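TODO from last week: model Glutamine transport ATP-binding protein GlnQ.
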Amino acid sequence: MIEINHVNKWYGPSFQALKDCTTSVAKGEVVVVCGPSGSGKSTLIKCVNALEPIQGGEIILDGVKVNDPKTDLPKLRSRVGMVFQHFELFPHLRIVDNLCLAQEKVLGRKHEDALAKGMKLLERVGLKDHAKKFPAELSGGQQQRVAIARALAMDPIAMLFDEPTSALDPEMISEVLDVMVDLAREGMTMMVVTHEMGFANKVADRVIFMDRGEIVEDAKKADFFGQP
Ligand code: ADP
Ligand code: ADP
């Protein structure tokens, strides 16, 4: 589903953030990316949906080459769900409208259909009763669950997560991880940057460890955690 082949990325002429990175995520696979701060984890997943350009190698998403000038990037990005550390909900829109906006504007869904889908997903993340609220009225954990629901509303072929729990108070981390665990178990293709090794241990198929722009380990979970 996601192929990353010999990718090199520079920020400016002198700083190489990714060095010959090669890995892949198969359909239905959950890959956790970990490593020290500044090692290039966030950069790697931003390159997958071309939020950052690459200078060498190739990335192929569901058969489409991402780093090709002919690729329709808005269309490609609309098919990959992305959840960031900061929830990035539209602050002036009610939760329900946050869920409908891209479905209507990007996918051209009718309002009733977008609304039905949005409400179903809100129920799934346990927030149906908060539909009429504004983001600022929700806790960080609730906002992040809305962000996940909003990404799922687009019927993504894969989900990318960039430290989805690191901006949350400790007591809210598990409510977000629980939603992610459910998604993983339902067979969603996921690439997750996180320090939550409990999550990795529960649902990851593989764990990638990055250091200074290189993928230094890419192992099946059992090998990574040293389990039988
Ligand atoms: P991680 O997610 O592992 O913390 P990042 O991918 O965010 O690492 O960053 C990798 C390196 O690239 C860091 O040294 C960071 O300072 C640098 N970096 C990230 N984004 C930019 C940018 N837009 N311009 C210049 N350097 C950047
Ligand atoms: P994250 O790791 O969640 O991407 P960061 O705090 O590392 O968040 O980066 C926030 C923003 O600043 C990102 O858009 C990143 O590309 C940019 N950035 C990070 N490091 C640098 C840097 N050394 N120079 C310029 N921009 C940077």
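Done. The chain has a mean pLDDT of 94.
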